[in-house]
Design goal:
about 300 residues; mainly alpha; 3-stranded mixed sheet; 3 strands; about 70% helix; elongated
Length: about 300
């Protein structure tokens, strides 16, 4: 007679399952049944319908057409009982979902599953797959819809939403404004989002929204001195970044201009006074080009 194991289900009658079916692909089942000699296994952490489906899939040895509502627990069962082929098929199933996600609902489902995997098993692999698939799309509507519930989110969700939003800062500014409605002070999630997002880019892309955010924060009726100091520090840092970015762009433009005109300048500058005239006349502004011109004059005037 075939040996069976009794599975204790949540709110359902126990289920008799072939021992061989359980141990065939699972190191965990082998340990529990063959080494620990357990004849009953509790599955009260899972819905009975998902345990039944899990046993069916073990027999079929393929994932098949799993619906969204069953996926999380099936994946968890595959992970807990170390069933490698099912773990891989779950990964491929979710990857295909990520590749096909276009609507807000589709993106929300895949994002939540990837967040769950990241939290539960500290694995970023699936989240990385999702981000690589979605970052080339316009996710502004999804980001704004998802982050409307900022109060209920944690830093893991916020961090990955910022990555998903890419260089489009508008949905994050609008998220802050939506979440400031009815507030009397800054909460921790709002402060975290302000710290993590690119405020300098936000100012450059959406100056009016950026200023509206700061005006709204300034007018919070119960804002603390500490939060006012926090906002001032952010504003100062943002201003410094804006100045730095502006200077960097100016230098890059200057460098391009200098390189284009370097050949002509080298030919025309035969003595130091020519170089001086070029600098005073703003024909060259890069110190590196000046050094190169001086070396050129030196070479001309100094026999080898």
């Amino acid at each position: 007679m075939e040996e069976t194991i009794l599975l204790i289900l949540k709110d359902e009658d126990p289920l008799n399952v072939s021992k061989q079916l359980l141990v065939a692909d699972s190191a965990m089942f082998r340990y529990l049944i063959e080494e620990m000699h357990q004849v009953e296994l509790e599955f009260d952490d899972f819905l009975a319908e998902n345990v039944t489906l899990f046993i069916t899939l073990l027999d079929d040895r393929e994932l098949g057409n799993v619906v969204n509502g069953n996926f999380r627990e099936l994946n968890k069962l595959a992970q807990v009982f170390v069933i490698d082929w099912m773990k891989e098929e779950c990964r491929q199933w979710l990857k295909k979902k990520a590749e096909c996600a276009r609507t807000i609902e589709e993106k929300r489902f895949v994002f939540e599953e990837c967040i769950y995997i990241l939290r539960k098993w500290d694995s970023k692999a699936m989240m990385n797959v999702l981000l690589s698939e979605l970052t080339h799309q316009d996710n502004s509507s999804f980001v704004l819809e998802y982050m409307t519930g900022l109060d209920e989110q944690d830093t893991v969700q916020i961090d990955n939403m910022i990555v998903l939003g890419g260089s489009n800062t508008e949905p994050f500014l609008r998220t802050i404004l939506v979440n400031l409605e009815g507030k009397v002070k800054l909460d921790e999630n709002l402060k975290y989002l302000l710290q993590q997002m690119n405020l300098a880019l936000s100012f450059e892309q959406n100056k009016e929204l950026y200023l509206e955010v700061y005006k709204t924060i300034e007018n919070l009726p119960a804002i603390s001195v500490g939060d006012m100091k926090f906002v001032l520090q952010l504003s100062t840092k943002t201003t410094s970044l804006l100045i730095s970015r502006s200077e960097s762009r100016r230098l890059r433009t200057t460098e391009v201009w200098d390189k284009k005109n370097l050949i002509g300048l080298v030919i025309s500058c035969k003595k130091i006074t020519d170089i001086t005239d070029a600098v005073l006349g703003n024909k060259v502004t890069s110190v590196f080009v000046v050094v190169e011109l001086l070396l050129r004059v030196y070479c001309i005037k100094t026999p080898s």
